Amino acid sequence: MGHKLCIERYGDEDKPVTILIPTSKMDHIIPALLYSGQQVIVVNYPGIGDSPGKPLNQRSEQVLVKGGAGDMMMDVLEQLGLKNKKVAVGGYDWGSTVALRIAAHWPNRFSHVIAFHPSMGADKKVKDELAKIKANVLVLWVPADMFHPWSKWKSVPACI
Predict the structure, then answer these.
(1) In a domain, 61, yes or no
(2) What's the distance, CA 65 to chain centroid?
(3) How far is CA 153 from each of CA 10, 65, 104, 120, 123, rounded to the nearest angstrom?
(4) Which of 4, 87, 134, 137 could make an S-S bridge to 17, C-beta 3.0–4.6 Å?
């Protein structure tokens, strides 16, 4: 797709794979995933981490547009030789929105989703989309986060 992405790989290549999609540093999560027996692959989209280029539009409705974050992730999985392998995917903020939306759009590709403060709406359309996820989903929330009020999203996990 023409983008150069910084991809960091940690752990043994024979271990189950967890893909992380950060919008900020997620270094604190990597040791926990390695300890739990995962191989961790951090995919930095353009303009994030050490990936060059203009950042993608970080609106949740833009994730699945042609050439957007969803297509990029599927290309990354193919380039890493993971096209036919189920992987776990997780992220923070917009990264978790990407994780949830690609797991709903390609439900047979992902085994688990870790969504830490997803930044997407909570309307019926979102709930219907997320109901398509076949993976196990863990939603993480810190009540003190002012940018992602739980009160606006707390009805969504029941749909997944």
Answers:
(1) yes
(2) 16
(3) 32, 24, 17, 8, 9
(4) 87
Nearest alpha-carbon partner for 89 in 28, 33, 35? 33
Contacts of 9 (CB under 8 A, 6+ apart): 39, 40, 41, 42
Pairing of β 17-21 and β 39-44: parallel
> Which pLDDT tens digit goes with each residue over 64-109?
888 888 898 899 999 999 988 999 999 988 888 899 999 999 999 9
Q: Which residues contact 14 (CB under 8 A, 6 or more apart)?
A: 39
Domain span at residue 136?
6-159
Spatial separation of the C-alpha atoms in residues 156 and 160, rounded to whole Å: 7
Is pLDDT at 34 greater than 80 in this prediction?
A: yes
Q: What per-residue confidence (pLDDT) applies to 146?
A: 60
Q: In what order do the strands lie in the sheet with 136-140?
A: 6-10, 39-44, 17-21, 87-92, 110-116, 136-140
- In the chain, the percentage of residues whose pLDDT exceeds 90 is 42
CA distance 140 to 39: 21
Q: What is the CATH number of the domain that holds 49?
A: 3.40.50.1820
Question: The whole model's pTM is what?
Answer: 0.86
